[in-house]
From TrEMBL:
The keyword Transferase applies. Residues 162-173 have a biased composition (Acidic residues). One of its GO terms (cellular component) is mitochondrion. PANTHER family: 3-METHYL-2-OXOBUTANOATE HYDROXYMETHYLTRANSFERASE (PTHR20881). Its EC number is 2.1.2.11. Pathway: Cofactor biosynthesis; (R)-pantothenate biosynthesis; (R)-pantoate from 3-methyl-2-oxobutanoate: step 1/2. Keywords: Transferase. This is 3-methyl-2-oxobutanoate hydroxymethyltransferase. Belongs to the PanB family. Residues 123-182 are annotated as: Disordered. It comes from the Eukaryota. The lineage of its organism: Eukaryota, Sar, Stramenopiles, Ochrophyta, Bacillariophyta.
């Protein structure tokens, strides 16, 4: 029964990070079911790395993803005294585009690349732990959303929409842009 309690504690820790002002939470090497519950509970985005497909976004270490670190010392740089016989820039760009497309389309990560699992019994125990305070978390989620909106300095300073496409910066008396606010 240790894994469900640890999973529940991870959710509580993610909520504490959000409450402390984190703008996002990275979930690494956790079961997809746990990542989904954490993502649902938080107002801030979650980024998954080995955490299944139910996070707000995905990340991989590109050296690993592209197989760049095959040398035992992971020597990434060609010294000045070495002749460079190949450039892998095109292959890297192609791999990064394919990764981006698969994440956007939701085809990555698939079950094949979501190896962290809980048994059915562990999952049920985790669900019972979540049920204990589901209503309180819903209430806090709304309050957190309001607090994050209030604390969004960029929004208050209108820094998300900088300038307008017309090139005319004198759209109103205060010198701020007139694009629709978020």
């Amino acid at each position: 029964a240790g894994r469900p309690k640890k999973a529940r504690r991870l959710l509580d820790e993610a909520l504490a990070l959000q409450d402390a002002g984190a703008f996002a939470v990275v979930l690494e090497c956790v079961p997809s079911r746990v990542a989904a519950a954490i993502t649902e509970a938080l107002e801030v985005p979650t980024i998954g790395i080995g955490a299944g497909s139910h996070t707000s976004g995905q990340v991989l270490v590109y050296h690993d993803m592209l197989g760049m670190t095959c040398h035992p010392q992971h020597n990434q740089f060609v010294p000045k005294f070495c002749k460079r016989y190949a450039s892998v820039g095109t292959a890297i760009a192609r791999g990064l585009r394919e990764y981006k497309t698969e994440v956007e389309e939701g085809t990555f990560p698939s079950e094949e690349y979501s190896p962290y699992k809980m048994s059915d019994a562990e999952g049920e125990a985790f669900d019972r732990l979540l049920e204990q305070d589901r209503e309180e978390r819903k209430r806090q989620k709304g309050a957190t959303s309001s607090r994050l909106q209030d604390e969004d300095e960029y929004e208050r300073l209108m820094m998300y929409d900088v300038g307008d496409d017309s090139g005319d910066s004198d759209n109103n008396d205060e010198g701020t842009n007139t694009k629709a606010s978020k």
